[in-house]
Structure formats: structure tokens, C-alpha cells
């Protein structure tokens, strides 16, 4: 049979409970206070990345107004999460796809791909990843130009089956010691281009000039 709790023990437990509750409240308050700033930072980074994958393409529409989260089987299969259309007047000049893959060494990698209306890669940026610093983080454009090898390429040049790393018989360089990361990104880009082949035309419809009126 256990001994009854002494008054000291009860007091100790009460103090401990109060400290834990105080700490939890502090964390919650800090999180609440920081959340808008975190959201704004995430949005600013996404906007900068979108601008980066469009390279020198000129456009005059508000990209955020074109954001769509496609929900088709093709989009799900390709990991396409979000799309934006850049226009000059009513003419579409580029498409941006946000895609993700779970094939990274440490799980999910989120990428942005800018494409011309002909499906040529304008640029690729990594939005999020958890690959190993110093080994798998070559997919950050601030660390290496590895993603630059995809610029100017499209499905067909090279052919779909060559959208793999050289180790797997494809056309693209990997990074020795980090082939898993390179393979994941190359595969995700191949799937994005296959998706573009299927649904790109529908996404790139010219804007309705009536709808564009304020
Ligand atoms: C601690 C640790 C972290 C690693 N991080 C990565 C990584 O971020 N990306 C990656 O592709 N491989 C990483 N690897 C290596 C993979 O296990 C695998 O060996 C490698 O991707 C194969 O590429 P290779 O055939 O060019 O050597 C890591 C290995 C260890 C032990």
C-alpha cells in the first residue's frame, strides 16, 4: 500500500503543475504573437522564389490572383500542389508549378518550377526540404547551381525516359554521395513536366478580358 502524500509533496506537485502550465501558456502566447510574422515571411519567400523561377519573363498581372490548387488525379500523381499563371495583358507568358515529393533522403522536398507556354523550364527553386546540411542541400540555389542544369530543358529535350540522373541512365548530373536527393528532385521535375503535357494547356487559357476588368 502506498503512503499518503505529505503536505510538502502536495505543495511540490502544485508548484510543478503551476510552472508547467505557465510555461505552456508562454509558449502558446509567443507562438500566437509570432504566427503573423512567420506567415508573412513564408509568403515573402514564396513570392521571391516565384519571381526567381520566372527569370527575365515580363508579366503584368498579379500572380496571387491566379493561384489554383489543382485536384485532378494527374495533379495528385505529379505532386502538383499549386499553380500560378503569369500574363502579359491577357496572353499567358509562363506557368509556375509548386510540386512536392516524398522521395528525399529526409522526406518531403517542395519545389517551384517556372515553365514557358511551350513547357520549357525557366527556372527551379527549392521552397522547403530537410536534406542533410552540407550533403543534400545542393538543391538550394543559394548553395549551388545544381538546379540550373534543368533550365532550358523540356519533356522531349531530353526525352521523358532521360529525365533521370546519369547513374540511372538519364541526362542529369547527380552529386556524389547524395544521389538520393538528386534522384528525388529529377523525378519530381519529370512528373511535373508530364503533368504540364496533360493539363498545362487548360491552365494556360488566355484570361477573359471581361473578367480582368476591375
Ligand atoms: C548521416 C547521413 C546523412 C545523409 N544525407 C543524405 C542526403 O541529404 N541526401 C542524399 O542523397 N544522401 C544522403 N546520405 C547518403 C545516402 O544514404 C546514400 O548513400 C546516397 O544518397 C547515395 O549516393 P551515392 O550513390 O552517390 O553515394 C546520407 C548519409 C548519412 C549517413
Key features?
214 residues; alpha+beta; four-stranded antiparallel sheet; 4 helices; 4 strands; binds flavin mononucleotide
Note the topology.
Layout: H1 7-53, H2 73-78, E1 80-88, E2 91-104, E3 107-115, E4 121-128, H3 179-203, H4 209-212
Antiparallel strand pairs: 1-2, 2-3, 3-4
Task: Report on the architecture of this protein.
The protein has helices at residues 7-53, 73-78, 179-203, 209-212; strands at 80-88, 91-104, 107-115, 121-128. The chain is α+β, with helices and mostly antiparallel strands and 214 residues long. Strands 1-2-3-4 form a four-stranded antiparallel beta sheet. The longest helix is centred in the first third of the chain and has 47 residues, at 7-53. The model has no long low-confidence stretch (mean pLDDT 93). Residues 105, 131-132, 135-136, 176-181 line the site of flavin mononucleotide (FMN).
Structural class: alpha+beta
Please trace the helix and strand order, writing H or E for each element: HHEEEEHH
The portion of residues forming beta strands comes to: 15-25%
Radius of gyration in whole Å, from Cα? Answer: 24 Å
Are there runs of 5+ residues with pLDDT below 50, and where? none
Spatial strand arrangement across the major sheet: 1-2-3-4
Mean pLDDT, to the nearest integer, reads: 93
Helix content: 25-40%
**Which small-molecule ligands are present, each listed once?**
flavin mononucleotide
- What general form does the structure show? elongated
- Main sheet summary: 4 strands, antiparallel
Distance between the termini: 78 Å
Number of DSSP-assigned strands: 4
Number of helices: 4
